[in-house]
Amino acid sequence: MRYAQSAIDLSCTQDQFLHVNGSCVDCPTCGPGQQLSEDCGYGDGGGGHCEPCGEAEFSAETGLAPCWQCTQCALLNREERASCTPTSNAECGGCLKGFYELKRKNGVIEPLCMPCLGPSGGLRRDCLPPGPSAGLAPTISRTRPKEDSRSMQSHIYTLNLYNSEASCL
């Protein structure tokens, strides 16, 4: 009898459990903002009930899927447009100040915003203002420090970004 019961277990689908009478029965489905209290499907489960999603979790659809962790926009260096609720995920906006969007070659934008300052402390090109403003173009000029000596190879670079300057040594 034990062998026959395991053969029946295999006939239940991913959204059915094996009832005590030996037939496959549909698992209970939960609405948005809920999840089953235990796994159900492929013959297992059946004793579960719907319960609310936990803290910082959501479920947007009706079905058997568990609740999902809410997106944490701050961890992606993005602004939060809409908070996470039990029935909807958080909605992230643009990059936080000091970060920029990284685009792949195929045009897809990465969810994680990258810091504007590079590893060497320089400002990334992606963080510069987009295009000239009022007919002005950014300029970079190179000058020698006043203590000019033949052994000194450093220069001062000045970047003029549309009437505001940033200097780098």
Automatic annotation (TrEMBL):
Its main location: membrane. One of its GO terms (molecular function) is signaling receptor activity. This is TNFR-Cys domain-containing protein. Residues 52-92 form the TNFR-Cys domain. One of its GO terms (cellular component) is plasma membrane. Coiled coil: none annotated. It is found in: Membrane. Keywords: Disulfide bond, Glycoprotein, Membrane, Receptor, Repeat, Transmembrane, Transmembrane helix. TNFR-Cys repeats lie at residues 52-92. Pfam families: TNFR_c6. The keyword Ribosomal protein does not apply. It comes from the Eukaryota. The keyword Glycoprotein applies. GO terms for biological process: positive regulation of canonical NF-kappaB signal transduction; positive regulation of JNK cascade. PROSITE patterns: TNFR_NGFR_1, TNFR_NGFR_2. It is a single-pass membrane protein.
